[in-house]
User: Fold ABC transporter ATP-binding protein from Planosporangium mesophilum.
Amino acid sequence: MVGVSALRVDGVTVRFGALVALDAVSFTVEPGTVHAVIGPNGAGKSTCLNVLSGVYRPHAGSVYLGDRELTRLRPHHIARLGIARTFQNIELSGTQTVEDNLLLGRHHLMRAGLVATALGLPSVSREERRHRARVREITDFLGLSAAIDRPAALLPYGLRKRLEVARALALEPRVLLLDEPVAGMDTAETAEMAAAILAVRAELDVTVLLVEHDMGLVTRIADRVTVLDFGRRIFDGSPEAMTSDPDVVAAYLGG
Ligand code: ADP
Ligand code: MG
Assistant:
């Protein structure tokens, strides 16, 4: 029952040499919520996503999706269990179209082998049509349909960031990990992304873990917030409680 499982980070520590990037950090992302992890630059937010997606292995602690331990699984295995992510810096295939970027994202969902594809069997084209139809739904959902045949590199910045989210959604995840999805966006682009994130949770029933530097977006769309500072968890609770928490205020004003 991956669909209704909590994502649990339990006592995770990551070190880079003498630097402790995450210091025994714990928090739980409840299914069906938008959960934000925020903190000043260098707080350990991206490191946290890298642990959750299997890019880094923690020195101590564990990560679970429901009862399933993810701690030592490889990134592709974690993706197959239903956890998809975006990166802080855009990582798209720039020369490929929007549609091809999304079809590439669905490769592991395609059953047809190379031989069947090469022979052009009817079952293959049926499957391909099904995938193309789903890709169209995802592009509609994220307001990318008008750009579906354009190379990713030619899209405006805000659309490229949405394409990254679309590509992660093309994996049909239960949990979506977003690393600073509105970084560098103007007010209008930020509002569109915020609406898209809320729609993903409400309409696609995908749990969202959102890493964010800025408090503004978080207080508007997150159900729960974990605040990191220098690798330590300094707050875990509602966005309302966060804004008046003395430790959080000090970390942000002091940083
Ligand atoms: P955030 O995303 O909150 O800005 P990061 O998780 O990227 O912070 O980084 C946390 C700390 O770990 C920072 O001090 C950063 O310089 C350091 N760090 C992150 N990744 C590496 C790495 N691969 N090698 C060495 N230090 C790293
Ligand atoms: Mg980061």
Q: What stands out?
A: The CA atoms of residues 94 and 153 lie 4 Å apart. Residues 122-141 form the longest helix (20 residues).
